[in-house]
Design a protein that fits this description.
The protein has ten helices and 13 strands. With about 290 residues, the protein is an alpha/beta fold. The protein folds into three domains: about 60 residues, Nucleic acid-binding proteins (OB fold (Dihydrolipoamide Acetyltransferase, E2P)); about 160 residues, Rossmann fold (3-Layer(aba) Sandwich), CATH 3.40.50; about 60 residues, Probable gtpase engc, domain 3 (Ribonucleotide Reductase Protein R1, domain 1), CATH 1.10.40.50. Strands 10-9-8-11-13-12 form a six-stranded mixed β-sheet, sandwiched between helices. Strands 1-2-3-5-4 form a five-stranded mixed barrel. The chain has a two-stranded antiparallel ribbon with strand order 6-7. It starts with a strand and ends in a 7-residue tail after the last helix.
């Protein structure tokens, strides 16, 4: 790889890979070895390319992935922003907690972003997640509340936003980068968004140094649908359970109904937020019959 130029894949469209390397973006095609090996490069992949005289290139290899989400197809994420509005629509904590669990399984750090803080008090919801060990940002795209602090947290990292329709993802992106909407439209037109899959992820670099994977149409429901968690994995995806796992009377404890369950005891003593535990039980009920070979 010594003779190759190293970069990051920003977007994959119609057999072309747009790779940022050495302060430029190169339109690349992939070598046939990728098809033969069954490897599909995605946004966020570390790419090694050969640059041609016409400033296009060949995608030669991709680096080892730290993590990977199936939908949106993006690799090497640092942060997954769980975006939820405090009102209009009201927060759905079960969907939030499903997304957080999937982020934990994939070793992506979840960060909670509560929007529309100018419309309703966010403190009660924020406290549930801070108590559970998460960073929480209470923001208003309209007034600018919390936007500066969020920018600082994102700087130097690759993030993806998850949130359902109406929670204010577009407004949040425009608050983080006022030119974002215009830039997105220009690049999308150039790269052909609309002619190809609407599930394609595209990475943008903000002026603060943050990278955002923009995923049109991506919602919490999408990530839940394609990222499976099995019952034996679930408790490990709730970080506030960590200190209590292994302390139950029964080694096969599901942490739902058993006598002598250390997790249930922690909930009853106020050490684990009951809202989070309710989500755990609901998710467990959904996944308890899933088999790894299904």
């Amino acid at each position: 790889m010594a003779d190759f130029l190293k970069g990051i894949i920003l977007k994959c469209v119609g057999g072309f890979y747009y790779v940022e390397a050495a302060d430029a973006v190169y339109e690349c095609r992939a070598r046939g070895i990728f098809r033969k090996s069954g490897i599909t490069p995605v946004a966020g992949d570390t790419a090694y390319i050969t640059v041609l005289d016409d400033e296009t290139g060949w995608l030669e290899e991709i680096g080892e992935r730290r993590n990977f989400l199936v939908r949106p197809p993006v690799a090497n994420l640092d942060l997954l922003l769980v975006v939820v509005s405090i009102t209009e629509p009201e927060p759905n904590q079960l969907l939030m907690d499903k997304t957080i669990a999937i982020a934990e399984k994939n070793e992506v750090e979840p960060v909670i972003v509560i929007t529309k803080a100018d419309l309703k008090d966010t403190r009660q919801l924020a406290e549930i997640y801070r108590k559970s060990g998460f960073e929480v940002f209470e923001v208003s795209s309209k007034t600018g509340q919390g936007i500066g602090e969020l920018k600082k947290r994102l700087t130097g990292f690759l993030s993806v936003l998850s949130g359902n329709s109406g929670v204010g993802k577009s407004s949040l992106l425009n608050a983080l980068e006022p030119s974002y909407g215009l830039e997105t439209g220009q690049i999308s037109k150039k790269l052909g968004r609309g002619r190809h899959t609407t599930r394609t992820a595209e990475i943008f670099k903000l002026s603060c140094g943050a990278r955002i994977a923009d995923t049109p149409g991506f919602s919490t429901i999408d990530i839940e649908r394609v990222q499976r968690i099995y019952k034996d994995e679930l408790a490990g995806c709730f970080r506030e359970f960590k200190d209590y796992l292994g302390g139950c009377r029964f080694t096969s404890c599901s942490h739902t109904v058993e006598t002598g369950c250390a997790v249930i005891d922690a909930v009853n003593s106020g050490k684990i937020a009951p809202q989070r535990y309710d989500s755990y039980k609901a998710i467990y009920g959904e996944v308890k019959d899933l088999k790894t070979w299904d």
